[in-house]
Amino acid sequence: AEDQNLTVTPNPLEVHADTVAFEMSANLPVKMLKKGKVYSINSFYKYGDNEIALEPVQFKAEDYPNANEQQPKQTKEYAFAYAPAMKTGVLQVQGVASDPKNGKTKETERMDVAPGVITTSKLVEPVYFAAYADHGYNNQEELIPTRVNFYFDQGSPVLKYSERRSDRGDLLSAYIAEKNATRTVTITGTHSPEGAERINSRLAKQRAEAIQEFYKREMRKYDYKGLADSIKFITKDVVEDWSVFKDSLATYEGISSEEKSAYLDIVNGPGTYESQEDALHKLPTYNKVFKELYPKLRVAKTEILTVKEKKTDAEISVLAKQIVDGSASADTLSEEELMYAATLTPSLQEKEAIFKAATKKSDSWNAHNNLAAVYIAMGMEGDQDKYADMAMTQLEIAANKKEAAEVHANMATVEMMKGNPYKAYSHLQQANSMSPGNDLSQGINGVKGSAEIMMAKYNDAVSSTSNSEDNATNLFNKGLAQLLNKDYQNALNSFKEATEKDSDMAIAFYGAAIASAHLGNENDVYSNLEKAVAANPELKGKALEDLEFATYVTNEQFRNILK
Fold first, then answer.
1. CA–CA dist 551, 231 (Å, integer)
2. Cα 380 to chain center, whole Å?
3. Where is the signal peptide, in residue numbers (predicted)?
């Protein structure tokens, strides 16, 4: 039995995705297996007072007719569910020779073939992410355009009385009278294509300047004083340019599409502006176009950009608190303003109250989602089970209203809090299929990377953590995935990056010690372990039992570090 050449791979055993899987190969000595006999290798994993009996490897003499000249060989794959108590244990085998005819057996004593279970995969740091949906409120300055056109007589830059007193003139006067907060006034003067307009090269500019002067007169009339200095006037002129003509022609209904094409063939064709305009004269519809369309080209187009009136952040915060305590109507703020108010406070309790008010006001998917995100954030601070259940209640309401990436991302975190990485992974896949934005995508990938390590998808975990938020936890998980993928040097680099982000991250120093052990860097094993136990003394006992450091256990320096 001592010569049966048993090989266990890996040795020590390892846990991956809650399963301890290994392969055992046995080569029996030549002439050991006698005719008519059966040799069985019974396997047991013993831990504490418990043991798991595994399926035996059987060598039947009739299956190996050449056993007297060749070694009988057999390889078998095993797997059993891991429990934390199994960390310290031993894989044992016992050989049993039997004669099926007379039922007689002989047994060897049990032999230890593999010590315990390496639990490095269990170092994974669960990642949780509270995904808030966009509140939809723009707290930046917004400019609202107001557009007014004034028309001129052929060849004239004079703004006529009839234009000033037109509905358009009255509109502009009324606007100016209100003293709206105005950023810019852009006035673009144009001319029609015919010679009387074209030969005066300053005509378009003079028309723009005429409107500017009218605007400024009105400001003086309404006593703008210092307000006038904050308004920027921009005057432009469009000279010998067919673009305005073509835009007007496109909406002109006085001629057919075929007739319009004749005009476009000329203005888009070769020749100077003057020669093209002369060619238009020869078209049968020219007089009609000249009479009906050309006057609309003798224009000064005015665009005024006004600052949209908004409440200040302080006003929004105060009103939100009043809505929450019932002293103000929910209609005091729009849904977007109310949702935005929650971003203005660091207090999770205040955020919860505001989002609760938002769910009552609008019952929208994003209000319910964001209330769930607050519960997730509360769960990250403690009492995960309680807040995970509260979050899931809100998320189920949100999901019924809209299948959104944020909702599935939050559902994934809730499942992670409940210890269900496979369910979390399913939600993360759905969230990723919905084209999330960059910040959300990074959050999703952090959670996904930790779930993938728990599922033993180490290649995928390296990819996910590489595309996650650049923080210590994600960098540690990246290093762990690389370590479990046997990419020891890159794992060491990632652990180092994690400790640079967080110099007190004991588990990252611990991971670096494991990677250094695999690389054979003894001094680095000691230096990293020293930093790990300095940051978290509880790691001393773990390191002494950890089979990753089995070759160092008897070393005096190693034991001194862990005293």
1. 78
2. 19
3. none
